[in-house]
Amino acid sequence: MQFKALSLSLLALVASALGATTSHPVTVSYDNVYDNPNTPFSAVSCSDGSRGFITKGYNSLGSLHLRVGVYVGGAGVIGGWNSPQCGTCWKLSYGNSGSIYVVGIDHTGDGWNIPQSGMDALTGGQASQLGRVEAVATIVDNSWCGV
After folding, report:
1. What SS3 class is residue 146?
2. How far is residue 98 CA from its own chain's centroid?
3. CATH number for 140
4. What are the boundaries of the signal sequence (predicted)?
5. What mean pLDDT is reported for the chain?
6. Is residue 8 part of a domain?
7. How confident is the model at residue 143 (pLDDT cuts 50, 70, 90)?
8. Residue 144 pLDDT more than 80?
9. Quick one: pLDDT at residue 21?
10. What distance in Å separates the CA atoms of residue 98 and residue 125, rounded to the nearest whole number?
11. SS3 of 41-56
12. For residue 147, what is the enclosing H or E element?
């Protein structure tokens, strides 16, 4: 049994190294704190530590220089402070409405919690009406987000 678990872990590591993507269904909601460029990185899980944004010289959400149309948010895959998933780039897809890219900067219980502006872009301007949606999250190369 341990051999099987080790084999699966190694397979996942090799797939990651080769650029394979991992997609899974998630719920997406919004929080306006991520819309505020003055929100300090000290308020999120990916603050300091070796993987933190403060350590890399960023003080607030607005200090990140992401590609136009890329958002930041909290994700269930970010386990907490200094998570290895801090700063990863994700593609969120919702039905036929399209997709957006999001940089993981914070922990949330399940799924994704993104700015209302990002959820509006994802749902065709329906964030406040829908509140929470089912989407698909796919980890992608950080170059898609400009990180």
Report:
1. coil
2. 17
3. 2.40.40.10
4. 1-19
5. 87
6. no
7. very high
8. yes
9. 63
10. 12
11. HHHCCCCCCCCCCCCC
12. none
Question: Is the distance from CB of 121 to CB of 94 less than 8 angstroms?
Answer: no
The DSSP-derived string for 119-142 is HHHHHTS-HHHHSEEEEEEEEE-G
37-94 pLDDT tens trace: 999 999 999 999 999 999 999 999 999 988 889 999 999 999 999 999 999 999 999 9
- Per the structure, the complete domain to which residue 78 belongs is given by 22-144
pLDDT at 100 over 50: yes
Which two structure tokens, joined as six digits, stand for 138? 């796919």
Q: Is residue 11 part of a domain?
A: no
- The H or E element containing residue 2 is helix 2-17
DSSP string, 3-38: HHHHHHHHHHHHHHHTT---EEEEEEEE-GGGG-TT
Residue 84 placed within a domain = yes
Burial of residue 72 (CB within 10 Å: 0-12, 13-18, 19+) is buried
